[in-house]
Amino acid sequence: MYTIGQISRMFSLPVSTIRYYDKMGLLPGLERTSGTRRFGDDQIEALRVIECLKRSGLELRDIKRFMDWCQEGPSTYDDRLELFREQRRKVDEQIAELERTRAMIDWKCWYYGQACEWGSEEFAVDLPDCLPADGRRLWDAAHVDLTASMAETTPA
Amino acid sequence: MYTIGQISRMFSLPVSTIRYYDKMGLLPGLERTSGTRRFGDDQIEALRVIECLKRSGLELRDIKRFMDWCQEGPSTYDDRLELFREQRRKVDEQIAELERTRAMIDWKCWYYGQACEWGSEEFAVDLPDCLPADGRRLWDAAHVDLTASMAETTPA
DNA sequence: GTAGATTCTCAACCTAGCTTTAGGTCTAGA
DNA sequence: TCTAGACCTAAAGCTAGGTTGAGAATCTAC
Fold it and tell me: Is the N end or the C end of chain B the one with fewer CB atoms within 10 Å?
C-alpha cells in the first residue's frame, strides 16, 4: 500500500490531481487509514487506465462511467469491450492525423531550410511548379487532401 | 477573395472561431471592404498553418508569435525553421505515445473479449503468468515501460 | 515532546479556446 | 420599399481539467 505522495512520484502527477481524480470517483475501492488515502494495486491499475483513456481522447466524465461499469460487475463486460474498441478506432484516427500534420511540418522544414540558405523566399514563387524534385515530393505529401478535394470538383 | 462564410465552409470552422483567430492576430494581411473581411491566398495558407501547428500541440499565443515572425521578414527564417523542427520532434513523440496507448488498449480489448466469452475475469487471476501466448504478447506490449522501470531497480 | 514534513478538506481561482448574446450595418431580391 | 440573410463588434459566458490557499490534523525523527 502506498501514500498519495508515493503515487504522485510513481506517476509524475501532482498530488492535487490525484485527489481531484479521487473526488471525481475515478479511483473506486480506495481505502483510508485515519483519513489518509492508501493506494493498492487496484488503484494503481485504475491510474494506468485513466492515463491510457485520457490519451486516447476520453473525457474524465466518460472515464468515470467506465469505472462505474467496473464496479457493476460482469453485466457490463460488453460495454467495456465496446468502449476500448471505440477508443482504438479513435487512436488510429489520431495517429493518421498526426502523420498528415507531420507531412505539412516536413514541407515547412524544407521550405524554411531553403529560405535560410537563399536568404529569401523567391525560390518559391509559383508553387508547386517551381520546386525541385525533393521539394516537390514534400509539397505533394503535405497537400494530398488539398489535391483530393480539388479532384472532387472536377468531372470523373 | 472569399468571405468569412465561404472560409468557414472551406475549413469546417465556425465563423466565430475565424473571427476569434483574426482578433488574436493570427491572420496577418487580412483586408476588408466596408467592414467585411476579405480572405485571400495568404489567409488561407495561414489557416492551414494554424491547423497544422495546433495539431502539433502549439498554443495560439505561440502561433501568434510565428505569424509575427512571418511579418518581420527574412531575419526570422531561422526562428521559423527551428520552430517547425521542434514541432516535428513533438509530433514524433505524440505518435510514439499514442502507439503505447494503443498497445494498452489492444490488451484491454483482448481482456474484455475473454471476459465476455467466459462471463468472468477468472481467466486473469495471477497476471501475467496465467495467460495463453496471444494474451501474454498483448500484456507484454502494454507493459513494456512497467517492465523497463522494474529493470532499472535491479542491478545490471 | 516538539519540529518539520505530509496529509486532509473545501472553496475559490485559473487558463485555453472558444461560443453566445445583444445590438447594429450592409446587400440582394421580390 | 421591405425583408432576409450575411456580415460586424464588444463583452459576457462557458467547459474541461486542473491548481491554489487557508486552516487543521497526523506522522516521523530526533
Answer: C
